[in-house]
């Protein structure tokens, strides 16, 4: 019986030792499985980030492709910059401001004051003489009331004439016997003529305007005629203005003037 009890205790001791041997590998395996778990989670996280980035890049590329397909004329934005660059290049070549030689041919002439015209009231048209000193000319000539074209091209021609009349009663009674001019039925006509060098300087009416005025002898009267148009002119052509009843012309340059400017070739 004692032997049997000793054998039983020995069996229990061997069983506990065997259990301890079986339990120790589990304790040693815990540190090994934990890094593996963390590594697996880290790899999965990296894969998820990579997949998200790949999807984002794919979507971005897709959107860009759609944008290009829906806007086939997008390269025009680059073409539109060429005029700006060309303008800058031209500015560098030509300078910031034009010199008088680069200005377009033009002229503006006011009426020459203190001109003596007959007061007989004749309707015959007379050429107006213009004031060079108080006007200006650029690459255009002038002689005896006529503008001379020095460069062929398309020009805009304009003219304005103002007529006025006021009966002046002098204080000297000796001049009261002078009969007044009849202005009750006065034709005030303005003509702009063009002499073509190709037609042997034959004058032709370029523009015409005016009116027949019924004015009062005892009050101040005024009438203005203005006109303008574009016309093709050749080098050597001339332009001039004729008016009827020139003795009624307003002598102030703000009211009566004549000019031309080249618009292009």
UniProtKB/TrEMBL annotation:
Query: Signal peptide location in the record?
Result: none
Subcellular localization, as worded in the UniProt entry: Membrane
Q: Could you tell me which residue ranges the THD domain spans?
A: 105-263
SUPFAM superfamilies found in the cross-reference section = TNF-like (SSF49842)
Q: Which domain of life is it from?
A: Eukaryota
Tell me the keywords, alphabetical order.
Cytokine, Membrane, Transmembrane, Transmembrane helix
Q: Which residues cross the membrane?
A: 36-59
This protein's GO cellular component annotations are: extracellular space; membrane
Q: Which Pfam families match?
A: TNF
* GO biological process per UniProt: immune response
Return the PROSITE patterns for the record: THD_1 (PS00251), THD_2 (PS50049)
Q: Which residues form a coiled coil?
A: none
What the record says about family reads: Belongs to the tumor necrosis factor family.
Protein known as:
Tumor necrosis factor ligand superfamily member 11 isoform X1
Q: What is the lineage of its organism?
A: Eukaryota, Metazoa, Chordata, Craniata, Vertebrata
């Amino acid at each position: 019986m004692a032997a049997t009890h000793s054998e039983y205790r020995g069996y229990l001791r061997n069983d506990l030792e065997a259990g301890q041997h079986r339990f120790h590998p589990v304790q040693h395996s815990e540190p090994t499985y934990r890094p593996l778990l963390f590594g697996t989670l880290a790899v999965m996280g990296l894969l998820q980030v990579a997949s998200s980035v790949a999807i984002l890049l794919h979507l971005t590329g897709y959107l860009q492709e759609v944008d290009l397909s829906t806007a086939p004329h997008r390269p025009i934005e680059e073409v539109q910059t060429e005029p700006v660059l060309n303008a800058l290049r031209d500015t560098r070549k030509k300078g910031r401001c034009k010199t008088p030689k680069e200005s377009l041919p033009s002229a503006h002439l006011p009426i020459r004051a203190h001109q003596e015209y007959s007061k007989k009231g004749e309707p015959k048209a007379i050429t107006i003489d213009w004031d060079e000193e108080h006007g200006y000319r650029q690459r255009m000539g002038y002689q005896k009331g006529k503008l001379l074209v020095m460069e062929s091209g398309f020009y805009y021609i304009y003219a304005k004439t103002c007529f006025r009349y006021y009966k002046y009663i002098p204080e000297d009674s000796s001049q009261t016997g002078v009969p007044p001019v009849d202005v009750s039925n006065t034709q005030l006509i303005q003509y702009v003529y063009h002499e073509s060098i190709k037609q042997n300087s034959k004058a032709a009416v370029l523009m015409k305007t005016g009116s027949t005025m019924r004015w009062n002898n005892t009050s101040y009267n005024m009438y203005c005629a203005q006109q303008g148009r574009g016309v093709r002119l050749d080098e050597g052509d001339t332009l001039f203005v004729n008016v009827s009843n020139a003795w009624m012309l307003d002598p102030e340059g703000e009211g009566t003037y004549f000019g031309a400017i080249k618009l292009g070739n």
